[in-house]
Amino acid sequence: MYTEGTPIADTKAPSGPIENRWEQRRLGARLVNPANKRKLSVIVVGTGLAGASAAASLGELGYRVTSFCYQDSPRRAHSIAAQGGINAAKNYRNDGDSVRRLFQDTVKGGDFRSRESNVHRLAELSVRIIDQCVAQGVPFAREYGGLLDTRSFGGAQVSRTFYARGQTGQQLLLGAYQAMARQIAAGTVTSHPRTEMLDLVVHDGRARGVVVRDLVTGQVSAHTADAVVLATGGYGNVFHLSTNAKGCNTTAIWRAHRRGALFANPCFTQIHPTCIPISGEHQSKLTLMSESLRNDGRVWVPSVKDDPRPPNDIPEAERDYYLERMYPSFGNLVPRDIASRAAKNISDERKGVYLDFADAIARLGRDVVEARYGNLFEMYQRITGEDPYTAPMRIYPAVHYTMGGLWVDYDLRSTIPGLFVIGEANFSDHGANRLGASALMQGLADGYFVLPGTIGDYLVDGPFEAFTATTTEVEDRVAALLAVRGDRTAESFHRELGRLMWDECGMERDEAGLRKALDRIPELRAEFWRRVRVTGTGEQLNQELEKAGRVADFLELAELMCVDALHRTESCGGHFRSESQTPDGEALRDDEHFAYVAAWEYTGAEPVLHKERLDFEHVRPSTRSYK
């Protein structure tokens, strides 16, 4: 399935006291003279929280920035879908929080498969992120006295999550977008919406640009710069049904992987425990119900198997509040991987999983619950036709986030010089499981603070020589997709792949299932190139063509995900091998053999595994318990 190559190491991470490492790295980085920054160009692909904040920050510093996104507008990036909040170690509640505690919670929540240096930096910067966003006018919720309000999220026993009702991602993105729009007006950032990256340009060993397709006219063009930043999000849509927007894809990072960027931990995917259940084959995506709802909502199942009664007719004595029973210390706010597995296992035995607000409404009043979660309740009612104020929400786990991504060092550099990867597109901070409300934190930390502090150390050697990039390979690939003229839609292949991945590489994996998937995926990929039918032409708006190109990349990524999952014969976080579990069904890590980052090299044949050893000096690996 694979061969093993030389180990890899993060050579940019400083040593010494962990509290001083980020400042030490910033002081050690070479600087670019302000006048010289105007001579240097940077391409940023993606305009979510990571991409928009990076473009705005780099433009503010004086670099010439070109921004690309496939959405109609930069402000329509998928970050707007993040609902519940953003973590920060402000300790406004005086409940014992600190940078150190956020660091420890994140390393433990990731099941000891993340880098300590990266996680501590993230915890440090969390405090500055809130100040930055407040200064931009982000309307965080406030207490009666005017102070910023917080709530709890999974994997923590403190209240550190700042929020803007149930639309935190949208409000944060508006803040980042207005900062980016200011730079567009100032002329330091040039924006190209409705433009999709289809390849990475590597020249003389450096990432020097991108090849893109205008989604309206179909024109393929190459754009060059002194450095390229990928901020294109995760690859959860490899499962077809996920909480991601339908357009979310892996093409940008997969094309970079094929050009030489190592792909790290692709099997680490996150299943969110509170999503609206699948209702039929007609669905193209699933809907997340924010983890914030578990602050006041209680999760339960009927005590009797296949209980036919409506949930409101089931008396309290016949309800099993299983998370509160199984994990009394954390209750409904255990980390997502644990809550998801518990929900699946218990719903396989019983009928229905419910998120109930009856107690909260009785305790707080409907007005308070509506003020906290009203837009989420409205969304649920519009989708299901059921009123969550009077009946429990129906929930079930669904694919949500990917902890894997392109390998980067402490400076956010990939293994291709000049290619930086930020936000969910990289693997760096969350290990095998992301704690809720930490995605927004990482995206903004990377874009506002880390990248602007490290990219200059690379760009100080620029500007690099000009050259003319070719678009031939991309044009040939587009033509090949159009030329098949088969009898199956790209959507039908995507649906089949997604079902296979969910069954064999989803919430629970085993060797037999993974080998079954690895037998079927190459067959499905070959069938795709024989039978896919793309209507229309390449010289126009053609969403079938867009979809076909993305599915083709998913069909390649899926195989690497299964190889990674098969080789890692342990359970950790979101990667649960049925052969590796404790007697009570919890994940069983193997720190002796698998305490490393699995960074995969693309060869066109068998992938090559490069291991980055993980060392723990400050949070000793232990059995992860939330009981």
TrEMBL record:
<dbReference type="GO" id="GO:0050660">
    <property type="term" value="F:flavin adenine dinucleotide binding"/>
</dbReference>
<dbReference type="InterPro" id="IPR037099">
    <property type="entry name" value="Fum_R/Succ_DH_flav-like_C_sf"/>
</dbReference>
<feature type="domain" description="FAD-dependent oxidoreductase 2 FAD-binding">
    <location>
        <begin position="42"/>
        <end position="440"/>
    </location>
</feature>
<dbReference type="InterPro" id="IPR003953">
    <property type="entry name" value="FAD-dep_OxRdtase_2_FAD-bd"/>
</dbReference>
<dbReference type="Pfam" id="PF00890">
    <property type="entry name" value="FAD_binding_2"/>
</dbReference>
<dbReference type="InterPro" id="IPR036188">
    <property type="entry name" value="FAD/NAD-bd_sf"/>
</dbReference>
<keyword id="KW-0285">Flavoprotein</keyword>
<dbReference type="InterPro" id="IPR011280">
    <property type="entry name" value="Succ_DH/Fum_Rdt_flav_su"/>
</dbReference>
<dbReference type="InterPro" id="IPR027477">
    <property type="entry name" value="Succ_DH/fumarate_Rdtase_cat_sf"/>
</dbReference>
<dbReference type="InterPro" id="IPR015939">
    <property type="entry name" value="Fum_Rdtase/Succ_DH_flav-like_C"/>
</dbReference>
<dbReference type="GO" id="GO:0009061">
    <property type="term" value="P:anaerobic respiration"/>
</dbReference>
<keyword id="KW-0249">Electron transport</keyword>
<dbReference type="GO" id="GO:0005886">
    <property type="term" value="C:plasma membrane"/>
</dbReference>
<feature type="domain" description="Fumarate reductase/succinate dehydrogenase flavoprotein-like C-terminal">
    <location>
        <begin position="494"/>
        <end position="626"/>
    </location>
</feature>
<dbReference type="GO" id="GO:0008177">
    <property type="term" value="F:succinate dehydrogenase (quinone) activity"/>
</dbReference>
<dbReference type="GO" id="GO:0009055">
    <property type="term" value="F:electron transfer activity"/>
</dbReference>
<keyword id="KW-0813">Transport</keyword>
<dbReference type="Pfam" id="PF02910">
    <property type="entry name" value="Succ_DH_flav_C"/>
</dbReference>
<keyword id="KW-0472">Membrane</keyword>
<keyword id="KW-0560">Oxidoreductase</keyword>
<dbReference type="InterPro" id="IPR030664">
    <property type="entry name" value="SdhA/FrdA/AprA"/>
</dbReference>
<feature type="active site" description="Proton acceptor">
    <location>
        <position position="336"/>
    </location>
</feature>
<protein>
    <recommendedName>
        <fullName>succinate dehydrogenase</fullName>
        <ecNumber>1.3.5.1</ecNumber>
    </recommendedName>
</protein>
<dbReference type="GO" id="GO:0033765">
    <property type="term" value="F:steroid dehydrogenase activity, acting on the CH-CH group of donors"/>
</dbReference>
<keyword id="KW-0274">FAD</keyword>
<comment type="similarity">
    <text>Belongs to the FAD-dependent oxidoreductase 2 family. FRD/SDH subfamily.</text>
</comment>
<keyword id="KW-1003">Cell membrane</keyword>
